[in-house]
Amino acid sequence: MVGALLIIWIGLHVISSLRLGVNPLDFDSRTFLTPRNLWNLSVQTSAVAIMASGMVLVIVMRNIDLSVGSAEGLIGMVMGFAQVHFLVRMVELELGNPWIWVLALLIGLALGLLIGAFQGFVIAYLEVPAFIVTLGGLLVWRGAAWWVTSGQTVAPLDATFQLMGGGPAGSIGAKWSWIVGAVACVAVVFALFNGRVQRKRFRFPLRPIWAETLLGAVTCAVIMGAVWLANSYPWPVGIVNRYAAANNITVPEGGLFIAHGIAIPVLMAIAVGLVMTFITKRTRFGRYVFAIGGNPEAANLAGINTRWITMKVFMIMGVLATIAAAISSARQNSSTNALGTLDELLVIAAAVIGGTSLAGGSGTVLGAMLGALLMQSLQSGMVLLGVDSPLQSIVVGAVLIPGAAAPKLVTREMLSGMKKGSVLVDVAIDQGGCFETSHATTHADPTYEVDGVIHYCVANMPGAVPVTSAHALNNATLHHGLQLADKGLKALVDDHHLRNGLNVHKGKITNRAVAEALGYEMVEPKAVLAA
Question: Which of 1, 25, 185, 323 has the fewest Cβ atoms within 10 angstroms?
């Protein structure tokens, strides 16, 4: 994962440099590998990374949560409404009161906990599949977010609350960044020393001293390098001048350099990552989660309260959605109906790319957070390169498909129970294969044997008939694409297949399922299109 991330960063830096006609080794301020871009990248990744750490637990337990983006939007809207209207106009707290942001955040946490508890209860105790429950939640919470303010944007937010969004004020500055880096290095050294003491105590194999020293040195170097990078990004000139004027500071002829330092949302994401890692690796609850994901029946027979554990996992997901909502709304100083839109897909993708198995039982918080960074790196890099939005989605999807390793459904032990001459066809070989004994073959040499069982593991099986496959895809989609291109909206009037795909038009809901889920009146598509 780290290697793939470095390759993407270097590739984007080289491409952006060549596009501008500059030497990649000059690290021009308009290219990818610059303090400004990497600092912004870290802030942009924070919200998704926080939710991805919780999604690991959800997926490990063989569930899914499609509602996190909508829940984030609803919670963000409620926190914004609380700050701008409820606490100021109804509770009559004065603007700038230090309790406003605290109370708003507590309201958000309570709502997130309630949403997670409700969905977890329905999934665990009423035994409704998580896919159905959270798909309904995706629609319900998004509609509820609109209902809170009738679709209006809520702004501006409390000044202290805004600090969670980053920016010059939402960073800790150079001095405290170096202190945080030093504390982190001390923690790394202590963790390595304590780990060695514990392994020695229980007579486990020990790494050589030189290996421990090298690991600690490299880790500390990475930490201090990240701090140096954050401190290399200065405040904008206009903000520096206003700050200097307000504090009677003389600005030198060459300008005043004030470093951003580490952003507060990044520190929040790191803190969440550490807590979630501790929960998954060091607590009974975490061990239960992985046990349930590995074999739910065995976990239940072992006396684990699988229903309560499931409910708690979704409650944790609700709390993390609240933290992400606080960061996202604070970053844009407003709560909008678009907040969190499609974030559920980014969160799931980050967890899966980070190595979380959709079959359950395996996954890491660090992997999911690195997956979030990888996804955001691709998006940020493509924006920097001026890539069109549709093509950005194509690239991200292309990375997700091979990045999601398929579960090993057939193990080597299972082969011994199969008759000699049996044939296994691994249709998931493009994602790494779902047989433990799989490895990719070609059309020229498509099969091999393991323990007398024939394996057919050709990558890109439709490639055996490429012309036929291409014609089939074109024949299925070209007609509809040409209709839309030639007729525009009139194509929906003439073709009921296209018309059935219309959900909303001119402020009217035209899809019955959406209207019923949100509690609004459904208008026939033909009537809206004819108006």
Answer: 25
Per-residue 3-state assignment (H helix, E strand, C coil) for 238-279: HHHHHHHHHCCCCCCCCCCCCECCCEHHHHHHHHHHHHHHHH
Q: What is the C-alpha to C-alpha distance for residues 181 and 188, in angstroms, rounded to an integer? A: 11
Give Cα 258 to chain centroid, integer Å. 31
Helix axes 365-384, 35-60, angle to 10 degrees: 140
Q: What is the three-class DSSP state of 195? A: helix
What backbone phi and psi angles, to 5 degrees, belong to 213? -65, -45
Q: What is the pTM of this model?
A: 0.74
pLDDT of 512 = 73
- The strand pair at 453-456 and 423-425 is best described as parallel
Return the pLDDT at 361. Answer: 82
As a 3-state breakdown, the chain gives helix, strand, coil percent values, each rounded to 5, of: 65, 5, 30
User: Letter for the amino acid at 477?
Assistant: T
The dihedral built from the CA positions of residue 462, 466, 472 and 476, taken in this order, carries a sign that is positive
- Cβ–Cβ under 8 Å, residues 190 and 220: no
Q: Where are the domains of the chain?
A: 1-16+362-404, 57-170+264-341, 173-246, 412-463, 483-530
**How long a stretch of residues is the chain?**
531
Sequence-separated (6 or more) residues with CB below 8 Å from residue 489: 529
Q: What is the pLDDT of residues 252-303, one digit of tens each?
A: 887 888 899 999 999 999 999 999 999 999 899 999 999 898 888 888 888 8
Work out the number of other CB atoms within 10 angstroms of the CB of residue 523: 18
Q: Average pLDDT in the 79-86 region?
A: 92
Residue with tokens 């580490």: 262
* Cα–Cα distance, 168 to 236 (Å, whole number): 8
Contact status, residue 414 vs residue 44, Cβ threshold 8 Å: no
What's at 129, amino acid-wise? P
Closest CA to 48 of 435, 323, 432: 323
